[in-house]
Amino acid sequence: MSSATDPYQPAERRLRLTRSILETVLAAGVQPRLTMQTRSPMAARDIDLFQRFDRIRVNFTITTDSERVRLRYEPSAPAIHARLRAARALIDAGIPSGVSISPMLPVEHIEAFASTLAALDAAEYVSQFMDPPGPAFVAGTPPATRRMACDDGWGLRQYEAARTVIERALGPDRRLLEGAEGFAPVE
Asked: What gap in Å lies between CA 175 and CA 42, rounded to an integer?
């Protein structure tokens, strides 16, 4: 659910469409494998429904540690601290949750960011560099964003170095998946 569009758009606060879909699926008595991808702390509102699913994972996209960077690249996205707080609420409620650092944007304090992510103890971690746009229905990073990252001194080398620090913080028992392997449906 939400492979291309976050199911917790601002209108969800008023319309409650995602919540209604989750309620309908549960009322039908089916238990699909459900993986949701969001940037929105609004997902924490639906913890009561998530707890009723047998096979679910809610992934939070957290692309950087810097509000300055977030505002430059994702000005309409929720604040990083709000996403982290929502992910913590789901994890504390027993909801399998993942962290998607995709695409990883410039990171200002990689050691602290890696420690913060590791402390969540998420069910899954995935990162990805800024892939160029692909064919129809394939996600990619727009050329203007890639140019902005280059202007900011953020390239593949910086991404790989940041990824190494995050992997070290996660330790040997938790893998940092790369790209598509981290977006497989929950088992």
From this structure: 27
- Look up residue 127 and give its DSSP letter: E
The reported pTM is 0.92
Q: What does the DSSP 8-state code read for residue 7? A: S
Q: How far apart are CA 17 and CA 176, in angstroms?
A: 32
Q: What 3-state DSSP class applies to 77?
A: coil
For residue 130, what are its two tokens?
């800024």
Kindly report the CA angle at 128 between 127 and 131, in degrees rounded to 5?
A: 170
Q: For 52-99, how does the pLDDT look when each residue is reduced to its tens digit (9 = 90+)?
A: 999 999 999 999 999 999 999 999 999 999 999 999 999 999 999 999
Q: How far is CA 114 from CA 92, 136, 167, in A?
A: 19, 33, 8
Structure tokens at 82: 């709000």
Q: Please give the domain boundaries of the chain with CATH numbers for all domains.
A: 12-183 (3.80.30.30)
178 forms bridges with which residues in the sheet?
127
Plot region of 171 (φ>0 → left; ψ -120 to 50 → alpha; else → beta): left
Contact yes or no for 55/20 (Cβ under 8 A): no
